């Protein structure tokens, strides 16, 4: 039996004897949840959402960095590809820019020509940055990228997307996310170590 302001409860104790107990209502109405609990839950939800966003951003950045395919090392004494002599590189220029993480990105631009008699579908280069003692401070191997467009920004593509036919010339760009602090600032040495032709 429910009464205004009270709850009536019947308890069965040892057979037929009954005892009655009255319990006062603590709260009535729609605001049974404490407002501080609601605020704590809202803060917790925002913290979880922020953590998820940070994790997604880190995964995206790592996936993009991994997709660049650079950063491998080829021994310094490796012989250049036999077709490398037919792929002269000229007009080297270097530049830098800041990335979203606050670091510097270094660009090495130039022009490559195919003076041979085969169509080139892939090039892998070794880039050697030297220190003031002319020792190798950084040795990096990466696929060669040709410049596809310059407006509204420089966009690159692999050589397989735009093969170099005999007599063709094309601008290229190599990208370095980090350069050794021991680098002397001079143009690095570019060695063509692998060429794919058809």
What does this protein structure show overall?
This protein is α+β, with helices and mostly antiparallel strands. The protein folds into 2 domains: 2-27 and 44-67, no CATH class; 84-197, Sandwich (Immunoglobulin-like), CATH 2.60.40. Helices cover 17% and strands 41% of the residues. The chain has 1 helix and 11 strands, in the order βββαββββββββ. It has a 3-stranded antiparallel β-sheet, with no helix packed on it. The longest helix is centred in the first third of the chain and has 33 residues, at 35-67. It is elongated, with a radius of gyration of 35 Å. 11% of the residues are buried.
Order of helices and strands: EEEHEEEEEEEE
* CATH T-level fold name of the largest domain: Immunoglobulin-like
Average pLDDT value?
80
CATH A-level architecture of the largest domain: Sandwich
Inertia-based shape: elongated
**What oligomeric assembly is this protein in?**
single chain
Order of strands in the sheet with the most strands?
1-2-3
Uncertain residue ranges: 1-14, 66-71
């Amino acid at each position: 039996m429910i009464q205004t302001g009270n709850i009536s409860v019947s308890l069965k104790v040892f057979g037929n004897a009954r005892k009655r107990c009255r319990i006062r209502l603590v709260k009535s109405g729609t605001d049974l949840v404490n407002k501080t609990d609601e605020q704590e839950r809202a803060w917790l939800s925002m913290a979880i959402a922020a953590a998820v966003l940070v994790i997604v951003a880190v995964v995206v950045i790592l996936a993009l960095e991994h997709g660049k395919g650079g950063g491998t090392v080829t021994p310094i004494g490796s012989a250049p590809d036999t077709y490398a002599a037919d792929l002269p590189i000229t007009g080297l220029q270097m530049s830098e820019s800041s990335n979203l993480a606050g670091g510097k990105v270094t660009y090495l631009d130039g022009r490559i020509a195919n003076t041979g008699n085969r169509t080139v579908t892939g090039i892998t280069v070794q880039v050697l940055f030297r220190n003031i003692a002319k020792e190798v401070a950084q040795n990096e191997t990466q696929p060669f990228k040709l410049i596809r467009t310059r407006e509204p920004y420089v966009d690159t593509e692999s050589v397989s997307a735009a093969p170099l036919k005999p007599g063709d010339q094309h601008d290229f760009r190599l990208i370095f996310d980090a350069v050794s602090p021991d680098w002397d600032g001079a143009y690095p040495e570019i060695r063509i170590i692998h060429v794919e032709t058809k």
